[in-house]
TrEMBL record:
<protein>
    <recommendedName>
        <fullName>F420-non-reducing hydrogenase iron-sulfur subunit D domain-containing protein</fullName>
    </recommendedName>
</protein>
<feature type="region of interest" description="Disordered">
    <location>
        <begin position="29"/>
        <end position="56"/>
    </location>
</feature>
Length: 56
């Protein structure tokens, strides 16, 4: 997991404006990073080789 795709913030119920600002900024940041390399074009997570072998 790319650490640039994870962010933790703390907002109380009274900080709706702060939450909106943080969410908007994070959305812009994620969009700049582009699609997640953990996803395929179909939108489902890629399976790791170990997972595929375990199910076989």
């Amino acid at each position: 997991m790319n650490p640039d795709r994870i962010k933790m913030i703390h907002c109380t119920a009274a900080e709706g404006q702060k939450f909106q600002q943080e969410a908007t900024e994070y959305d812009k940041h994620i969009r700049k990073l582009g699609p997640s390399p953990l996803r395929t074009k179909g939108g489902t997570p890629k399976k790791k080789k170990a997972d595929a072998k375990a199910k076989a």
